[in-house]
Amino acid sequence: MNWKTVLLALVLVDFSVLSALAIAEVGYLGIFRAGLANWGTAQILADLVIACVLAMLWMRADARARGLNSWPYIVLTVLAGSFGPLCYLLRREWKTAPRTRLASLG
Question: What's the rounded Cα separation, in Å, for the pair 81 and 85?
Fold first, then answer.
């Protein structure tokens, strides 16, 4: 595992814990209700939506260039926000991992 994979995995685990705590406290829909509570939180929600749309467009183009299927990650982004791009980046790192180390193990 390279440092990128380790860092992505750590961010994904930490974000998963944070998301689980938020869902346990306010529920899945409660996250969106909180995002629309006032103009400040609405701005943050809009910013997240814009960033996720840009990430989905980038994932689609990057996946095509690398011969990967981006649709599971795009759907995950629509349903769970940053989990989609994080999982895509992990998948991309695993696909591009050096094969020489794996070949020497077999």
Answer: 8
